[in-house]
Amino acid sequence: MYSTVMSTKGQVVLPARIREEAKINAGVELLVYTIDDEIRIRKMPKDPIGEISGIAKHLDIPEDAVKQMRIKDDELRRQKLGF
Predict the structure, then answer these.
(1) Model confidence, pTM
(2) For tag attachment on the chain, is the N or C end more exposed, with fewer CB atoms within 10 Å?
């Protein structure tokens, strides 16, 4: 377990060992969320829609709808990156 300090701008530096173990380099997109009183950080999945596609099968979501979600996700990522 490691500790870190938040800057006045809200920035937190992840310890080098954590970055190495998680294979996190500069520019890697991270998800930050809370569960109860915990703050959690995860690497953004390369295909977030794909991660839920297995769930979609159990929910009877049509494959076309999953495809449309994937297209919309790609569009939003391109906009965010300025493409």
Answers:
(1) 0.52
(2) N
